[in-house]
Amino acid sequence: MVNGSPHEKGCTYTALTEVAKTLNEEGIDTEIFWIGKKPLTGCTACKSCTKTGRCAFNDRANDFLDIAKGADGFIFGSPVHYASATGAITSFMDCVFYSDLLGGRQSFYLKPAATVISARRAGTTTTFDQLNKYFTLSEMPVISSRYWNMVHGAKPEDVKKDLEGLQIMRVLARNMAWFLKCKEAGMKAGVPLPVKEERMSTNFIRE
Ligand SMILES: Cc1cc2nc3c(=O)[nH]c(=O)nc-3n(C[C@H](O)[C@H](O)[C@H](O)COP(=O)(O)O)c2cc1C
């Protein structure tokens, strides 16, 4: 679980801990990775990750890439900043997902994912759409809840009063746990992984 907020123990963290608590009750271990407050560089398209599988800017994106392969599922949390995900989590996810793809690490392939958004008031659904796009490009099954995964508040105490938001977090966690257990059972039963096709990049040019 990634806390993409500049606040280590803020509203996003409060939502993530509700998900973590429920996942733990379901027998799933969790870890919350805070991206921190230091500046994170956006992708400069240098493509050195093609050779190294890591980002040329050795920041929290690389720390996360070092542990991502060992995780079975992912939750990325972000506060809303100007009706979008924060600049920091956007830079972080650009570098993480691009390095992973170009470096051929396959840390995310067929691993369930979800995003959790926190806002004082508005911009949650655009941020939700934005972050889900990383997952659907990466062949990650997106786990849903019974609403879009958001909590409201300007401080953690507000989030604790958002009872519907907290319920959405718990439902999300149980759905994620159920999927993880089904996937494990399927793998044990010998259900084969999907047949892979060579990637095509036509850039809309047809001839
Ligand atoms: C630069 C900045 C921009 C923000 N923009 C929005 C916004 O567009 N909509 C909103 O509802 N809240 C906005 N907020 C408030 C935060 O999204 C909100 O307080 C959030 O719950 C904080 O989560 P955190 O404690 O995990 O950082 C903004 C906060 C900051 C610092």
Automatic annotation (TrEMBL):
Pfam families: FMN_red. InterPro entries: Flavoprotein-like_sf, FMN_Rdtase-like_dom, ISF_SsuE-like. Belongs to the SsuE family. Isf subfamily. PANTHER family: NAD(P)H-DEPENDENT FMN-CONTAINING OXIDOREDUCTASE YWQN-RELATED. Gene3D superfamilies: 3.40.50.360. This is Iron-sulfur flavoprotein. GO terms for molecular function: oxidoreductase activity. Its cofactor is FMN; [4Fe-4S] cluster. Residues 2-153 form the NADPH-dependent FMN reductase-like domain. Keywords: Flavoprotein, FMN. It comes from Methanosarcina acetivorans (strain ATCC 35395 / DSM 2834 / JCM 12185 / C2A).
